[in-house]
């Protein structure tokens, strides 16, 4: 299918983002919250796309799933809870650790599961229905579901520009929760599937194996490797840890593993309540 959003030679990632956001606003292709700018779009048909993902073999065989907290992935989170899978979600903006496990009440009704599946966008809900997952936890994650602003059939992905999905995945590599072979999926509107120039993709960018839209499932021709770990020079934008601290930790602990440094950076004592 030929992309409806055209990317020009020389466009930057931000050019791509704004072309997608502007198009979706112009064509009224997104639900609340609006406007879609600076967000992972909660596109029309998101629940249908999530339903397709929940029927995939990769999802059916999974026991542990990590799903981003954005609104369009609520259907995947709900399906994971309904299937009694272990559901992991990122800590909002990585301010207090890396991941949380969503724990519905014992014997939860469908209404309660729906609340739990949406609680990731509600800080109070996170505190009520989740427990933090320590960095020492070695439970392997079977599949990862990420939000996207734009993706390509080659597996290239562009997020909303904060880098959290890339950093979360790299951190999970450090904890050995994921590997290069861990399946990464994204759910988007059909218009978000575009041609992303190769030169825009860097080594810290997370690529995807499957794209699920309301109308199709695309197995990408991914060749770009997923992040092999944390690239420290790329990680601190938007995260409340001074870059100087990263350098000091790296210099003072040259024989320590990346996991040791990560543990120090995500220690709650680093952050204000």
Query: What overall geometry do the principal axes of the alpha carbons give?
Result: globular
CATH architecture of the largest domain: 3-Layer(aba) Sandwich
Strand content: 5-15%
Return the structural class: alpha/beta
The helix content is: 25-40%
The unreliable regions are 235-258, 268-273
Summarize the helix and strand pattern as letters: HHHEHEEHHEEEEHEEEHH
Oligomer: single chain
CATH topology of the largest domain: Rossmann fold
Please give the radius of gyration in angstroms.
Answer: 18 Å
**Total number of helices:** 9
| The top level CATH class name of the largest domain | Alpha Beta
Instruction: Write out the CATH superfamily name of the largest domain.
Output: NagB/RpiA/CoA transferase-like
- Major beta sheet, strand line-up: 4-3-2-1-5-8-9-10
User: Can you tell me the number of structural domains?
Assistant: 2
Structure description:
Keywords: RNA-binding. GO terms for molecular function: RNA binding. This is Methenyltetrahydrofolate synthase domain-containing protein. This protein has 273 residues and is of the alpha/beta class. It folds into two domains: 1-239, 3-Layer(aba) Sandwich (Rossmann fold); 240-270, no CATH class. It is 30% helix and 13% strand. It contains nine helices and ten strands. The strands form two sheets. An eight-stranded mixed β-sheet has the order 4-3-2-1-5-8-9-10. A two-stranded antiparallel sheet has the order 6-7. It is globular, with a radius of gyration of 18 Å. The termini are far apart. Mean pLDDT is 83; it is low at 235-258 and 268-273.
